[in-house]
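User: Can you recover a sequence for this backbone? Please restate the input before giving your answer.

Assistant: Of course. Working from this structure:
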């Protein structure tokens, strides 16, 4: 089997040794130092589960952080290496699930964009005249009517965007509606 640059050539480590009831913080620290020294093996494991070096590095980093935070939950310090590897595997599973969620979200966004593109194409022919009338409005009225009716914003949001009071935003929208009504009645 060929190795990639993410796969170290270091052999699998021996267990951290027998557990002892009297182990202190120094033994735990040295156990984590040994785990960190074998980080390449953990990255190789994660890489073989995820097939992406960046995701593997992230999974190992997250696993080591989680292990450091929860080290007091490990009763048998002799199983530190196995415990950390199990955390790495769980992190890889979490990464895979996150990838799947992102892919589903991307698919939904793509489908919605395609539907909107179809919708816009249908509205384009119908809306060409309306667009011309909107473009003919004064700038403040045009901005207000677009924000209110096309972007569906509240008057408060429109006032914030336009840097005016809410009542001024309402007046701008009303004036734009009246100008559009006049444009269409002249035509009829």
């Amino acid at each position: 089997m060929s190795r990639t640059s993410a796969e170290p050539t270091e052999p699998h480590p021996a267990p951290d040794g027998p557990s002892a009831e009297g182990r202190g913080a120094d033994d735990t620290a040295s156990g984590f130092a040994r785990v960190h020294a074998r980080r390449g093996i953990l990255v190789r494991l994660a890489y073989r589960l995820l097939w992406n070096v960046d995701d593997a590095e992230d999974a190992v980093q997250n696993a080591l952080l989680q292990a450091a935070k929860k080290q007091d939950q490990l009763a048998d310090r002799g199983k530190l290496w196995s415990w950390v590897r199990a955390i790495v595997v769980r992190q890889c599973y979490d990464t895979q699930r996150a990838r799947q969620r992102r892919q589903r979200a991307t698919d939904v966004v793509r489908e919605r964009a395609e539907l909107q593109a179809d919708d816009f194409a249908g509205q384009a022919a119908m809306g060409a005249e309306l667009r011309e009338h909107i473009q003919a409005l004064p700038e403040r009225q045009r901005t207000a009517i677009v924000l209110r009716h096309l972007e569906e914003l509240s008057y408060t949001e429109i006032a914030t965007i336009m840097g005016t009071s809410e009542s001024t935003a309402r007046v701008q929208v009303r004036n734009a509606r009246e100008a559009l009504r006049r444009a269409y009645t002249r035509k009829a």
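That completes the design. The radius of gyration is 31 Å.
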